[in-house]
Amino acid sequence: MNSPGVVVPRSQGEEVRLDLVASGLFRPDLEILHEGENLVLPIDAHAGDVPPSWGTVVVRDFRPVARRGASNYRDLLSWPESEKDALPRSFDVVGEIVLIRLPPELRDRKNQVGGALLRFVPGARLVGLDLGVHGPERRRSVERIAGDGTWRTRHRENGLEFEVDVERAYFSPRLAREHARFAEAVRPGDRVYDLCCGVGPFALAVARSGRAREVTAVDANPAAIDLLQASLTRARLERRVRVVHERLETFLPTAEPVERVVINLPHEGIKYLPSVARTVASGGGLYYYEVVSRTDFAGRGSALVKLLTAIGTFSVAAQRVVHPYSPTADLVAFEFGRTG
Ligand SMILES: C[S@@+](CC[C@H](N)C(=O)[O-])C[C@H]1O[C@@H](n2cnc3c(N)ncnc32)[C@H](O)[C@@H]1O
Fold first, then answer.
1. What atom of ligand 1 comes closest to residue 219's alpha carbon?
2. How many angstroms is it from 117 CA to the middle of ligand 1?
3. CATH assignment at residue 250
4. pLDDT tens digits, residue range 283-316?
5. 18 and 88 in one domain?
6. Quick one: which of 187, 211, 319, 323 has the fewest CB in 10 Å?
């Protein structure tokens, strides 16, 4: 079957495959092609949807993965094949909750889609139409389209289980690898700030590793703070994280510098970046996330370093696309090191 695919060197195949899976672009129903030293990973996307740094998009003839039963929730809908074209191939699973975005033309058939997902996803209890995140607390608007119960659930990630309320506090299962990466960057004895911590996936991952001397997690949303406290108590990690219900505006001015800082507030983080950078000790590091237009990607890291020269000496230790955000922009992770 003809489909677009991304050409990647074998050595980067698994890395890019995981990025594509997390972004909902990978097609698990087609087999990966081997072409000499390269792999071609089948995708449900067009060239413009794939960040150029992940590889070149081509069209190839892929073999379907042999499976028994439905290989996709779309197989459970008895619609004519042509009407299924508008159905998204990807959806998110947060604990027992499935979230899907639907184009406007499918909204009147949302309950059928919800029913198919409820049957398809093992362990699903509730299916929500994802209407996006809004407001300063980045809360998600959701509408129940199948199943029952509340929006509160327990999500498993990187060997941890934590409390999430899909409607009351921000959480994205697409950032699991970033949470793990940050925790891995923490060295024994580091002090850590998780700024804008939400339900605390970064802080929890760091606490579990046990390497940090001290972890402080800060957020303005009281619901997020309650959920983080509940997760820490369940995991018996409450003594390893200081949870602070406060706005950055009041926390940052008196914050002592620490060795590792993370802030994931992609649209507004730039507002706080200089005062956040002040809390990074010399020899320490900062993880910072931003939505960056593809045309600005190459130069954005050095532009941010320049912006920080008034605060100290920073350099870009790494810069990578986390997932596509729109046809022209991506969510990008920046790792800055401070040397002075
Ligand atoms: C995109 S979410 C990130 C949550 C978490 N770090 C994660 O990766 O799942 C941004 C968080 O920033 C918090 N926030 C926004 N503005 C804030 C501010 N001025 N002070 C403190 N927290 C803020 C919101 O409540 C929200 O939980």
1. 22
2. 30
3. 3.40.50.150
4. 999 999 999 999 999 999 999 999 999 999 999 9
5. no
6. 187
